[in-house]
Amino acid sequence: MGSYRTLTLPLLSLLGWTLISAFNLDTDYVIRKTGDANGLFGFSLALHRQLRPADKIMLLVGSPRARALPGHKSTITGGMYNCDINSLSQSCQRVMFDNEENLAAENKQNQWMGVTVQSQGPGGKILVCAHRYQRRMFVDSAQELRDLTGRCYVLSEDLTINHASDEDGGAWMFCNGRNRGHERFGSCQQGLSATFTKDRHYLVFGAPGAYNWKGVVRMEQKNSSLWEETSFDDGPYEVGDESRLDFANSYLGFSLDSGKMLTKRGQLTIVAGAPRANHSGAVVLLKKDEVKSYMLTAEYILEGAGLASSFGYDLAVLDINGDGWQDIVVGAPQFFIKDGDIGGAIYVYLNKEGAWDKITPKKIEGAAYSMFGLAVENMGDVNLDGYDDVAVGAPYDSNEAGNVYIFHGSPQGLKKAQVLGGKDHNVKLFGYSLAGNMDLDRNNYPDLAIGSLSDSVFVYRARSVISIEKTVTTTPKELDLTKKNCGENICLDVKACFKFSVKPKTYNPTLMQYSIKVESERKKLNLPSRVIFTPRSANDYESTGVVELKSQGTESCVTRGLKLQETLRDKLRGIPIEVSVEILNPSTRRKRQNALPNLLPILDSNQDATTVQFIKEGCGADHVCQSDLHLQYKFHTREPNRDVFNPLPEENGVPILSLSDQKDIVLEIKVVNQGEDAYEAQLTSSFPKSLSYSAVRTKSGVITCLANQNGSQADCELGNPFKRDAETTFYIILNTGGISLDTTEIEIDLKLKTTSDQKQLQAIKAKAIVKIQLLLSLSGIAKPSQLYFTGEVKGESAMKLASDVGSPIDYEFRVTNLGKPLKSFGTASMIIQWPKHNSQGKWLLYLMKMTSTGLDSFICSNQDEVNKLGLKVEPSVSRTKREIEETPAKEGTVSLFTDKRKYTVLSCEDGAECITFKCPLMGMDSNAVISLRAYLWNSTFLEVSMLHTLQTTLRLCFLLIFLVPSYNAVRIKREERGKEEMDPPEKKQWMTSWNENESYS
């Protein structure tokens, strides 16, 4: 097959598609033609012009499932129809050909005649094919064989078969008589695609079923009249054979087109699609082989990028950018991206003087499930701007109603222009076939035919495009704000002039409506206009009127006055003025008298504009204000209820905010201008969620700051203009109510803005580290502070009442918050280490209950350790009587303050087994109290006292913690212990004391 170069398609940035307003394909007077139901009328289309014996415009429609003609033995054969677009009737006439059937040699049942319909152009031939046509052998025998060879007919321009012409007739069956079997030519399916070359010399056939569906492309012609011109270059030429290593099922020849400005100037190139090549698709650029005179060889191969994308299903050759070289648009209707909203794509190859190996295509994607790119058609220059345009079918778009997307050519490539929808006609699969590049209504603009699978076709005619040349001038050209030129005001005049051109030149509109708009961008932003029309119009932004247009090329002008508003802020940016026009046509729709009523022209969509500049003071001779703004910042604290600001301390140059009870912090801002005047100078500050704007203070002058609703951003006006060498310092006060324990730092974005010219105005981030200091005080007391033990030693099983255990003791812990409510930050917890047993496992303190006040709820951990034995509480009267009547079993003398006595301290670290209670202080505001009721276990101490005379102190350990992430800087100040005087020591005393631990976390 010869050497060739392969191009791989990279994934490019996408061009999103949205529905856009119509341009010059008319949607009011669409021509509709219909065929018999279920005939697939519209599966293929061709626009044709007959020159002899009479000049006629025809729409040719393939209907591959149409009923057979009377001469057939089969019932469904397909056929071609001729539709008269000048007729109001929607029906079309069946073209009479292929009206016989020889069952001894062929079978035409379901042959799909009309699967392809092509016109050679004005006065040229017609090509129509049936790719499922069958040749029969050994008919009515056990050895009967059938080959799906396919067949094509060539008709003369008047849709008849001229037997004197070598081309006319149905003998175009190049697979017939060749080696059989699907691995050779037994399933050739010639005619699934077919076309004429652009030079009108050759017919080109695609046979995608040949060679095990590798596919074959064949080019030939049979015009014996060329012999007289000594031209014997008739072919045939083929590409494809069984010895090639191409993958089976490539379907080469599924789509076809040609050009003579693709690889070399004047060289004929056949462009063939192979939508299943390499499982993704390919397009092959073929030329005549320079060695083998009967071969076509691949010069370039364009490879599809998406697996199973059907790249090459359809294609079109056209000159998109008007450089004289022909470009290629390739459809890939099954392209998709996993989990994406994409359903099909087209690839646009802009030719680089034949260097296809240097081309990077642009991909345009369709909507999900739309099969965008199933049909691609060269429309010709539909708007006569000098660039070829393209139509792309997406028949499954809009819930299978179908859409057709129109793209205009331009020097930069394809541009979105118009969308035509099947919903407008209540059909399905609109856009399945396309035909264009021919003027049907003789207005010099090519029209477009669109087929559907609803047995209906539609013709959209192109409207003439009026190009209006507009010029806009102002007097004066610049506005001097120091000079009043109309009384106490400043005024200017706007002059707009128009002249038009249109094809055909005989068209001359009479009236045109113009619109002069000012300040369009400010209107979008709901800002007032800086100028008003004089005399004042109903709309400050727009003035409209009507002007008479004369012959083409003749200028017509209008003048309107503008007055500058007194309250003017933006003195730097010019005042934009836009002029648009609209041709005044009859407002009532004319009744349709014929199939081709005259269409009203449409205006080109461009509009002219100008800008009136201000004469700017303090900006140099070039009137360009080059400011040089600089910003410095510093964090401060604010004394309560006073505008006294103190700088924050720093660590390694970073401010440290130690937050306790402060409601505000302050950001000092200093701005200087070391350049020319800065117009509309402004500082925009964006605050984190932890801060919100509160107020602004200045040292001198006036600074106005405007904050948004939640205080997350503030815009501060610095001056208009902020003069050369100007300097200002002000203070932005920020509320700290949003700071939580998760706040490790604060970061404020500061952005200077000006309409003057200053390119290096980057945003500055003002940062500070946050350390939260909680002003918590913790105190505790035990009542009584001294206890006596006496009585008999009893076992645990003998304990029924709490008073059986021993003497009661009450502990009370008070937490006081002197700073912000804890609810603002999180939840504090108290940790209590409770001495339950001694080292021998004997009870020490029996915890009976735990209560609290000042908290929303109070649930400590290890709740099962409270009243572990389920003892009952004896009524206080009975208990007192019992205590009074009780006689000590043994007495001893113990003194706390005698050094000669043995002194024992039981703590959780030494001599006591402890239980840890973690008690969250839920909902604490200013203070909370935790109360514990416990009983001294007499028996344990009686046993010890029998062996030793001792004084024992129990240490109850508690601390206050705060639930904070480990990386946060949060300090709890040292707790303060309450001072309580103890009772004097007495006999056989059991004395408890408590110990506080300072904790930071």
UniProtKB/TrEMBL annotation:
Known SUPFAM superfamilies for this protein? Integrin alpha N-terminal domain, Integrin domains
Identification of the protein by name: Integrin alpha-6-like
Major localization class: membrane
Q: Is Signal found in the keyword set?
A: yes
All copies of domain Integrin alpha third immunoglobulin-like, residue ranges: 776-944
The organism that produces this protein has a lineage beginning with:
Eukaryota, Metazoa, Chordata, Craniata, Vertebrata
Q: State where composition is biased (Polar residues).
A: 990-1001
User: Which Gene Ontology MF annotations are present?
Assistant: integrin binding
Q: Which organism is it from?
A: Sinocyclocheilus grahami (Dianchi golden-line fish)
Asked whether the keyword Transmembrane helix is assigned, the reply is yes
